[in-house]
Amino acid sequence: MSHQIFNRRTSSALVTLLVAGLVALGQHYGWFNAAVHQAAQNQPGLYSIDHFIDGDTVAVKMGDTTESVRMIGVDTPETHKPNSPVQCYGPAAAAYTKTLIGSSQVRLQADPKSQNRDRYNRLLRYIYLPDGRLVEQELIANGYGFAYTQFPFTKSADFVAAEDAAKAAGKGLWGNCTITVEANGRKQTNNT
């Protein structure tokens, strides 16, 4: 009887050791990376980009519909506003957004201080990359957009600080465009 118990314990220990060894090898050699990546891409709350509209607006696939999503707290120079010329750094901002997001799925987050939709019926959301970076913060910090503080949102102090740092460093539009401020406080770019 004690011999059978010893054999079962030994067998269980060997199986556990074998499984642990295979898991360690799989992690070391990346055998599970594709499965983990695929599982992450299929998480609820992650959305695929249908198309890019401009530097601060994208269209995402939500089930059977496509929704326009306007990023909260950032304003990039215009690329195709009706009755307006293309603004300085507008095409660069649009290209940066497209490159930054690429084919990644994104996580959308509402802001409790912000409305759900803007006057054009676009969803208002923060857009997070799979690595956790906030697209709006990246745009502002790298000089592709302004902190858009005309409406309340929780990250406004962070976005203003990122804008101040980009401006001080002459990044992006700060070093390549003339910036004017409209009567309502909204900034826009002009060619220098």
In short, what is this structure?
With 192 residues, the protein is α+β, with helices and mostly antiparallel strands. Helix content is 39%, strand content 24%. It is elongated, with a radius of gyration of 24 Å.
Largest β-sheet summary: 5 strands, mixed, barrel
Helix content: 25-40%
Strand content is: 15-25%
> Architecture of the largest domain in CATH?
Beta Barrel
Uncertain segments are 34-43
Structural class: alpha+beta
The total of beta strands comes to 9
Q: Distance between termini?
A: 91 Å
Strand order of the largest sheet: 1-2-3-6-5
Question: What report would you give on this structure?
Answer:
It is a single chain. This protein is an alpha+beta fold. The protein has two domains: 2-31; 45-191, OB fold (Dihydrolipoamide Acetyltransferase, E2P) (Beta Barrel). The chain has six helices and nine strands.
Tags for this entry?
two-stranded antiparallel ribbon; elongated; 6 helices; 24% strand; alpha+beta; 192 residues; 5-stranded mixed β-barrel; OB fold (Dihydrolipoamide Acetyltransferase, E2P); 2 domains; 9 strands
Question: Helices, strands, pairings?
Answer:
Layout: H1 2-29, H2 33-41, E1 46-54, E2 57-62, E3 65-71, E4 74-75, H3 90-101, E5 106-109, E6 123-128, H4 135-141, E7 146-147, H5 156-169, H6 173-176, E8 177-181, E9 187-191
Parallel strand pairs: 3-6
Antiparallel strand pairs: 1-2, 1-5, 2-3, 4-7, 5-6, 8-9
Helix pairs in contact: 4-5
